[in-house]
Amino acid sequence: MKNHVYRPFIVVVVVIALILVARYLYVPKDFGIYERGFMYGYHRKSNEAEWEAFKVKFRTKEYCKDCHPDKYEANMSGKHHVIQCENCHGVAIDHPENPPKLTIDRSRSLCIRCHAKLPYPTSKRGDLPGINPEEHNTDMECVTCHNPHKPDMEGW
Ligand code: HEC
Ligand code: HEC
Ligand code: HEC
Ligand code: HEC
Q: How remote is the CA of residue 102 from the centroid of ligand 1, in Å?
């Protein structure tokens, strides 16, 4: 073989060798194709145990029902029934042991997160009833006027 063919050939061989070495060093030992073929089986086996050990953080509102029945009923009978208590009060997995009280956030930013009017015609976010936070009753907390547990505007 002539030199100008031979040299690039060596380069290719070296690159492939480097890739194989890197693969050997970086792919975890338990990575492979398990029972269920390429679609679901192509993964790192120990990842299954990691997800099993992953601690769930949220309770959902069924958990709050017996201890805070008034808030539960208000929420479920109003427009906010589609959202979770923990959307506003934070993670409740070990409450009331730890923490004994959940956060009460009266700030405008809590509500603006969902209610700032956004012009996204093709997204559900754009369908939420929205206000312009720079114009809508500025310098006052939203909960001065709106009930966070039952914000329904009917009869206003
Ligand atoms: C086993 C009963 C129990 C459950 C279940 C429970 N809580 Fe509580 N929660 C308490 C107690 C007790 C307090 C302390 C009340 C106090 O000191 O006024 C508290 C306090 C709170 C507070 C603070 C009230 C304040 O006045 O500072 C919030 C907010 C709250 N809980 C929300 C929730 C939410 C949301 C859930 C469901 C995800 C929930 N709790 C589930 C018993 C419970
Ligand atoms: C949209 C946000 C939001 C949602 C959803 C929400 N809360 Fe609240 N919650 C608040 C705010 C804000 C306050 C403080 C209201 C105030 O001081 O006027 C509050 C106050 C409370 C308090 C303490 C005040 C009191 O009167 O005892 C409890 C307990 C509570 N919420 C429980 C719940 C539970 C249980 C749910 C679900 C069923 C829930 N909240 C859903 C925002 C929310
Ligand atoms: C001074 C009382 C007051 C305060 C504070 C206030 N609002 Fe309102 N809000 C109203 C009134 C009254 C209406 C109905 C008339 C109108 O649209 O202005 C309304 C309307 C709305 C609507 C429209 C509901 C619909 O069906 O289209 C949303 C959403 C809303 N407010 C969210 C908020 C949020 C979020 C905050 C805080 C950033 C806030 N409001 C602060 C009194 C208030
Ligand atoms: C996680 C998102 C989320 C948060 C946070 C949130 N809301 Fe809502 N809000 C909603 C949804 C969803 C609806 C129902 C929309 C519907 O029925 O079309 C709603 C409805 C409303 C309405 C309209 C009621 C009506 O009759 O038209 C008002 C007013 C409102 N929320 C006020 C508030 C206030 C005040 C806060 C803060 C304390 C708040 N929201 C926090 C999602 C949220």
A: 6
